[in-house]
Amino acid sequence: METLNPPVHLNDPELKRSAAIAKALGHPARIAILKLLAQRDTCFCGDITEVLPLAQSTVSQHLKALKAAGLVTGEVEGVRTCYCLNPDGVKELKNLLSELSDELFDTCC
Amino acid sequence: METLNPPVHLNDPELKRSAAIAKALGHPARIAILKLLAQRDTCFCGDITEVLPLAQSTVSQHLKALKAAGLVTGEVEGVRTCYCLNPDGVKELKNLLSELSDELFDTCC
DNA sequence: GTATATTATCGTAATTAAACGATAAAGCAT
DNA sequence: ATGCTTTATCGTTTAATTACGATAATATAC
What we know:
homodimer, 56% helix, Arc Repressor Mutant, subunit A, mainly alpha, elongated, 11% strand
């Protein structure tokens, strides 16, 4: 049955935000970093670089991406930067996820 | 405190799978398509193209990406193709999400 | 058979992402 | 002050993404 749908606006802020959060998770290294941050209480860039098979500059780039997505905060502590999960961002992530879970019930035509 | 972590293997299948699913959601058009598929019972490429501000070939590409990620199935019905949410893929997505929700409790150093 | 409708694929262009090494900046130690 | 450590940024290269129009393929209609 033709349930006619209104046109979709790809610039809808909520839609864009959801995609941005998902995109930030769209690389194994970034998921790994988030999990590390959830486990450890120290979270300097160097600690992460030690554990990931990536160059320091690459890790720094991934951290920047996570920060831009609002999933992570970075507080300068002297010469180092302490990265942490951003509670607000994680909350948004969880909301996105549960919203999607609700909407994507299993149907098939 | 230095909770020393084992090295992370970015080729870990589960990690890669999680990232691949997230990546598939990492574009507004693809999230919109998934939501449409959840709402409508007809789900031909043309129906989606009608609603999205994108060319037919672009929509087809996004559908291909969703299919490659296992989130969508496409059954050929004569000259058209009927796209549906893939229950297995959606289940995986939900598992990923709840796993992440569990792991990413709010901490800060 | 000829035309029409539907979708996938090809070719292409522009943009973004991912990775690295090298370097700069800035704090800490001596 | 000099050197060491830590991290961000720059410059670069390679690869992937996104988008479009054009075309091919295939089923349906006439």
